[in-house]
Hints:
This protein has 17 helices and twelve strands. By secondary structure, it is α/β, with parallel strands linked by helices.
Amino acid sequence: MLDFSDKYYLAMSNLCISNPLFKAKLFEYFNFDIEKTFNAGKEDLKGLSEFCDGEITIPRDFLKKRDEIDPDKVCEDFLSTAEKYNIKYITYEDEKYPEMLKNIPDFPLMLYYKGSFDGINFNKTIAFVGSRKASINAKEALHGIISGLKGSDIVVVSGLAEGIDARSHKSALENGLKTIGVIGSGFEFTYPSSNKKLYFEIENGGGLIFSEYPYKTPPMAYQFPLRNRIVVGMSYGTVVAEARMKSGAMISAKLTLDFNRELMCMPGLISNPNTEGIYYLLKNGASMVTNSDDVLEALGWEAETIEREELCLDGIEKEIYEIIATEAQNMETLGQKLNIKTGDLMANLTSMELKGLIKQAGGNYFISG
């Protein structure tokens, strides 16, 4: 059953204005009264600019767009969609609304969601962001960090994009951690389509998917940087794994600092163009993290994690493990370094994969998470 005031939250979410700061400031101006916020007239808005110290201007077409929206009709449409596609929502007034998110200047007034709040600890949230075209090395290093958090109540937050985002969510699920994805469109769209299985896994027990957009809102380029503020805004810190100087990940890094949250970066190969942003951030004060303990230390957290058993390897397997531990290798390079026959190398690699010590991806071998 919808609360009476909720129809105005739904109506505001359907009000297409590209600057979410305006909506947040308007809501504050009317003392967090959503009905007054939506129904504000021209005269009511006269003191808004002064209230915001000139920080924002009223969009020229705000009143026109607002007058085109019927809150009751919006409610009707939402209820039919929600029932069919199992979509729910939380508003700023809801006790489930993440407290950290209330502390950012352009907080969303409401969020649509799929999934469940069961097991989600909003006091232990970490954002993981990075390149959509991330290297295999970065993905595997990230997987290692998240695997080190196994057995804890830490929640992995990311943007459900390709690359680092997808790897972050998958690693969380593989290690029994809850994860939150924030998308830059309405739920009618699975973007990118390659993440369809990932969406399903998160919705069905893995955690939550949030969107600030109504169901039929298509993915638009400007919406993804706005999505980043929610990813970072509900998190106590952000781990950046590969980022060019001009990228969404660098936008997230800046937002992390603007919101006074902990910024952490994973180092990578200096020859990789995707690390130029990482080393810029590290030179300017970001914490360097190479394992889960570094992340916990940067945030001042303690978390129970499962300790790994000490490895007992000898012979060729030990040599292979030591080489791969330094840097991922393909079979040809390993054969040259070890100077052994291809058949013998294959037998050892297969044995190590079956033991769960190493894994193969993109033609290279890696240490398993």
